[in-house]
């Protein structure tokens, strides 16, 4: 049913519908509304699960790791510094091949301290073995939770997943969301069946150490699981559209790419602004389109190559910066399109909550068409 | 798509006003989007909140720079400047003040509606919280939200006795501005 | 006398601990006490490494290792999960003193404050043995380790051991105990009591390390006994924050304990550091008073 | 054997590792002097001292590392450590 609600509450409602058994989370701006709502749901027995009020994000994810290992569906949410504090557990959980879903209300990393949105937090964990999905709006943020649990718990995948949605820009925005009912979600997302679990009836040792004779093979296994996650995401996204009518059957989403000379590439909520800007530019006769990356891990290289085979120029908008190199998506798109003859330019944009307007998108396209790029876009040169 | 910018002070309920106007708009049959100017402002500091209204899903995520409508929760905010920035020709500004519209220095082409929301809120609610009153004025002045939809939104947000008072405040403002408009 | 179950050890032979390893004995005794209906959560450390090189696990019960410092948080999640699932297993953390006293304090404090139904057992060998004998918050005063070496200007570790049992008792832990592998029956009894006490319980078991402390592997039990007989280690129980029982001894001078270990040799050679030894003796005396451990002879009482 | 997902393993595999090869000194048990107290089995860090049908004890030399704790702690002094090779 379509209802108007805050993004955080939509996510909390989606999480509730996924029937989490153990929730462990630590409050941090701008994630707080999600965990407050979940705590209330547990307090009112709307969620039949345990809510652990941990003393740090590090413990939040550690507790989720334990819960998942014991065979329960686990959930957490965090952002920015909280995610950074989880760094070690993130790698560990993926290596242990324990499923769970975590919502990230994307936020910049300090210093300087910033509570505002960019993607530096999750991008910094792209190598951790978690699959990463980025939502454009609160409908997508809601829906991706059902898909993420299904994929994470699939025995061919067994990797944890992050559903990333932009802090404040989505988390604190009221807008209409079509929220499924419990029966519909139950029909799509089966109960968690652990591949193996800590169980005195069938003992197993988890988290052993691997000597050089084994370590690489275990890492290769995770890499294969990540590739499988791509396929399972597509399948689960298609199945989702059969159940709910909204299609997530691709790791990327093209918008008005037909006949486009210049393609923008972006992730998250800025894609909405870009779509409006593309419409205006198309109305003005400019051949511009958008390729939205819904998944950043696994990286949808094949899909990107296929979607962009007719464009001349690609402008990648990165709400992150790999300091000492360039934006993460820009670097990877360049690698994906190497040898294609397509010019790929990277624009670091919207860091730390800097607003991105339609006119900024148009200016980026201007720059790209002139061949100017690989830059921080929109710097206030007067303060430099 | 039409856009509303609300100017207020921390603690005056600007964010709640934006949310409830968005809810009422949705109930009135349009797609709406409400969000605050995300900040760390404390009580008393100038704050902004935004609402968009559209016949289709709202995709735009930037802040609002060229509003069709402005609500000013406290006329003292005018002297700081900026409340009318970027307002569209034919736009409507709803200002909480005892003064008549002619006393407000607004850009040409902007229709100014004034309402003494503070006195009305004090009379009906017993506290100078003006956001629900201004929502009623907004409904009457713009037609973006129906009064019955606003009433529904208020009743969903506030518990029974408080809801009654807020509905009364909104309705009184709606009638006052409706009469004037 | 304890039951002997040579053929069905839950902590199996084939592990790679040093010959004469105190912690290995602790692990065996823990599982003897806890039995099969147990989930063990381990920290990174000596025991984890010597017992679980893939795929050769020595653990006959469900066992998980995540990181160095998060065992108590992982256990919190496991406990919540099995409670939610209506299962009956007991959750036990088995972690070294580095993981417990130092890097894991945050997670432990949180888990104890929330009072999860877990038993946290610290096998205390008084330094980071896995990485080559570096000091921890559990290293005793004047012990020479690789990061607190005795030297021309140093007498070894500068501070006495942190009083972790009292810190955890102050969290409201219903049962806190210290034990020693040198008194296996007592240790086993305490583990049984802890796992059967609802809430977060703590046991700190003294587990001498022949390699790190510098003594002959055959002396592991004897060294542990000397720690108790000199009053430098006290075996006691705290129930709801109150010391309920402490093992009484006829105390020996601390020199007997110190002299037997290489880590304290600098207190005797080249010349005896009498004043420093007196400080350590004073610590033992203070322990004796605090826990009332001295067995008094009849004449003395008169 | 294919790798287990997540570097996990079932119990029983440590016993593949025959730590008896570490031994330099071997405990020799003299059952005739044994008081059957079982302390040797209790204190063995390997858990490789086994009770016989007679109630006396023998070490499992496949795993015994020769630490000598059993000999040291035996109240009857019924265990002697002897060098493996001279």
From TrEMBL, chain A:
Q: Name one GO biological process term.
A: response to oxidative stress
Domain Pyruvate flavodoxin/ferredoxin oxidoreductase pyrimidine binding per the UniProt entry, residue ranges = 14-231
EC class, as a word, reads oxidoreductase
> What PANTHER family is this protein classified in?
PYRUVATE-FLAVODOXIN OXIDOREDUCTASE-RELATED
What Enzyme Commission number(s) apply to this enzyme?
1.2.7.1
- Which Pfam families is this protein grouped with? PFOR_II (PF17147), POR_N (PF01855)
- Keyword Transmembrane helix set for record: no
Name of the protein: Pyruvate:ferredoxin oxidoreductase, alpha subunit
The protein's matches in Gene3D superfamilies, at most eight in alphabetical order, are given as: 3.40.50.920, 3.40.50.970
Q: Which terms are listed as keywords in the entry?
A: Oxidoreductase, Pyruvate
In Gene Ontology terms, what is one molecular function of this protein?
pyruvate synthase activity
Coiled coil, from the record: none
The segment(s) forming the Pyruvate:ferredoxin oxidoreductase core domain are 260-361
Query: InterPro entries, per this entry?
Result: PFOR_II, Pyruvate:ferred/Flavod_OxRd, Pyrv_Fd/Flavodoxin_OxRdtase_N, THDP-binding, Transketo_C/PFOR_II
UniProtKB/TrEMBL annotation, chain C:
Gene3D superfamilies from the UniProt entry = 3.40.50.970
Q: Name one Pfam family in it.
A: TPP_enzyme_C
Keyword Thylakoid attributed: no
State which Enzyme Commission number(s) the record gives.
1.2.7.1
Where is the Thiamine pyrophosphate enzyme TPP-binding domain positioned along the sequence?
A: 44-205
Which UniProt keywords are listed? Oxidoreductase, Pyruvate
Alphabetical list of SUPFAM superfamilies matching this protein? Thiamin diphosphate-binding fold (THDP-binding)
Top EC group = oxidoreductase
Q: Which InterPro entries match?
A: PorB-like, THDP-binding, TPP_enzyme_TPP-bd
GO molecular-function terms, A-Z: pyruvate synthase activity; thiamine pyrophosphate binding
Name of this chain's protein: Pyruvate:ferredoxin oxidoreductase, beta subunit
From TrEMBL, chain D:
What is the name attached to this protein's record? Pyruvate:ferredoxin oxidoreductase, delta subunit
NCBIfam families, A to Z:
PorD_KorD
Q: Which cofactor does it need?
A: [4Fe-4S] cluster
Q: Where is the 4Fe-4S ferredoxin-type domain?
A: 25-54, 55-84
Q: Give the signal peptide, or none.
A: none
* Annotated keywords: 4Fe-4S, Iron, Iron-sulfur, Metal-binding, Oxidoreductase, Pyruvate, Repeat
Coiled-coil residue windows: none
Question: Under which EC number(s) is this enzyme classified?
Answer: 1.2.7.1
Tell me one GO molecular function of this protein.
metal ion binding
């Amino acid at each position: 049913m379509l209802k108007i609600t805050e993004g955080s509450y939509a996510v909390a409602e989606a999480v509730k519908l996924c029937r989490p058994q153990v929730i462990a989370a630590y409050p941090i701006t701008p994630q707080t509304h999600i965990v407050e709502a979940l705590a209330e749901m547990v307090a009112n027995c709307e969620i039949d699960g345990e809510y652990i009020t941990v003393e740090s994000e590090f413990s939040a994810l550690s507790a989720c790791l334990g819960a998942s290992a014991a065979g329960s569906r686990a959930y957490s949410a965090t952002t920015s510094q909280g995610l950074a504090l989880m760094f070690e557990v993130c790698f560990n959980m993926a290596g242990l091949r324990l499923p769970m879903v975590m919502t990230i209300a994307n936020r910049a990393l300090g210093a300087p301290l910033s509570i505002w949105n960019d993607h530096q937090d999750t991008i910094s964990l792209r190598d951790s073995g978690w699959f990463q999905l980025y939502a454009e709006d609160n409908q997508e943020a809601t829906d991706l939770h059902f898909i993420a649990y299904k994929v994470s718990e699939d025995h061919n995948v067994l990797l944890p997943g992050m559903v990333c949605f932009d802090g404040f820009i989505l988390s604190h925005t009221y807008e209409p969301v079509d929220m499924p009912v419990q029966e519909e979600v139950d029909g799509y997302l089966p109960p968690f069946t652990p591949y193996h679990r800590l169980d005195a009836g069938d003992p197993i040792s988890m988290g052993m150490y691997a000597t050089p004779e084994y370590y690489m093979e275990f890492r290769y296994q995770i890499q294969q699981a990540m590739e499988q996650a791509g396929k399972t995401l597509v399948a689960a996204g298609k199945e989702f559209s059969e159940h709910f009518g909204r299609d997530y059957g691709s790791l990327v989403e093209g918008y008005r790419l037909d006949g486009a000379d210049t393609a923008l590439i972006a992730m998250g909520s800025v894609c909405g602004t870009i779509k409006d800007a593309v419409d205006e530019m198309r109305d003005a006769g400019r051949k511009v389109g958008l390729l939205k990356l819904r998944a950043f891990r696994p990286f949808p290289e094949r899909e990107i190559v296929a979607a962009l085979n007719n464009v001349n120029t690609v402008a990648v908008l990165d709400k992150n910066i790999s300091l000492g190199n360039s934006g993460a998506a820009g670097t990877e798109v360049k690698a994906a399109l190497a040898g294609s003859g397509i010019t790929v330019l990277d624009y670091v944009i919207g860091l730390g909550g800097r607003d991105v307007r339609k006119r900024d998108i148009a200016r980026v396209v201007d720059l790209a068409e002139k061949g100017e790029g690989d830059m921080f876009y929109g710097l206030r040169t007067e303060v430099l | 798509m039409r856009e509303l910018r609300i100017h207020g002070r921390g603690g005056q309920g600007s964010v709640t006003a934006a949310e409830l106007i968005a809810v009422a708009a949705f109930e009135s049959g349009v797609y709406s989007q409400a969000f605050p100017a995300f900040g760390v402002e404390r009580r008393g500091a100038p704050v902004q909140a935004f609402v968009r209204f559209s016949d289709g899903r709202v995709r735009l995520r930037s802040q609002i720079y060229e509003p069709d409508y402005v609500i000013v929760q406290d006329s003292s905010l005018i002297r700081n400047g900026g409340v009318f920035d970027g307002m569209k020709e034919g736009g409507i500004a709803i200002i909480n003040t005892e003064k008549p519209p002619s006393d407000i220095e607004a850009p040409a082409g902007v229709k100014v509606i004034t309402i003494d929301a503070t006195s009305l809120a004090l009379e009906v609610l017993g506290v100078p919280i003006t956001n629900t009153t201004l929502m009623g004025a907004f409904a009457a002045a713009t037609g973006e939200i129906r009064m019955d939809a606003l009433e529904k939104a208020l009743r969903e947000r506030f518990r029974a006795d408080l809801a009654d008072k807020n509905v009364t405040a909104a309705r009184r403002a709606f009638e006052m501005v409706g009469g004037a408009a | 006398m304890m039951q002997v179950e040579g053929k069905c050890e839950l902590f199996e032979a084939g592990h790679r601990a040093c010959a004469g390893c105190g912690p290995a004995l602790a692990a065996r005794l823990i599982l003897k006490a806890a039995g099969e209906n147990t989930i063990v959560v381990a920290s990174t450390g000596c025991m984890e490494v010597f017992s679980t090189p893939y795929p050769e696990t020595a653990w006959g019960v469900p066992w998980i290792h995540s990181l160095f410092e998060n065992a108590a948080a992982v256990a919190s999640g496991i406990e919540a999960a099995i409670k939610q699932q209506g299962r009956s297993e007991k959750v036990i953390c088995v972690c070294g003193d580095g993981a417990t006293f130092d890097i894991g304090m945050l997670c432990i404090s949180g888990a104890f404050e929330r009072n999860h139904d877990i038993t946290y057992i610290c096998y205390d060998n008084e330094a980071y043995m896995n990485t080559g004998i570096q000091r921890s918050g559990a290293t005793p005063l004047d012990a020479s380790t690789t990061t607190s070496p005795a030297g021309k200007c140093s007498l070894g570790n500068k501070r006495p051991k942190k009083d972790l049992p009292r810190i955890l008792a102050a969290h409201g832990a219903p049962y806190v105990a210290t034990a020693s592998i040198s008194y296996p029956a007592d240790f086993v009894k305490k583990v049984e009591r802890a796992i059967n006490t609802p809430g977060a319980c703590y046991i700190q078991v003294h587990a001498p390390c022949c390699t790190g402390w510098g003594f002959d592997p055959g002396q592991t039990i004897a060294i542990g006994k000397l720690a108790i007989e000199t009053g430098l280690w006290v075996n006691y129980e705290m129930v709801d924050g109150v010391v309920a029982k402490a093992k009484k001894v006829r105390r020996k001078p601390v020199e007997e304990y110190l002299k037997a270990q290489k880590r304290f040799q600098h207190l005797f050679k080249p010349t005896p550091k009498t004043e420093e030894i007196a400080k350590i003796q004073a610590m033992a005396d203070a322990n004796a008073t605090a826990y009332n451990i001295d067995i008094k002879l009849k004449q003395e009482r008169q | 054997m294919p790798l287990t997902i997540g570097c996990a393993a079932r119990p029983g595999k440590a016993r593949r590792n025959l730590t008896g090869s570490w031994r330099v000194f071997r405990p020799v048990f003299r059952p005739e002097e044994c008081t059957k107290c079982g302390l040797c089995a209790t204190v063995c860090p390997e858990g490789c001292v086994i009770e016989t049908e007679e109630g006396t004890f023998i070490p499992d030399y496949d795993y015994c590392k020769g630490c000598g704790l059993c000999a040291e702690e035996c109240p009857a002094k019924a265990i002697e450590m002897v060098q493996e090779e001279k």
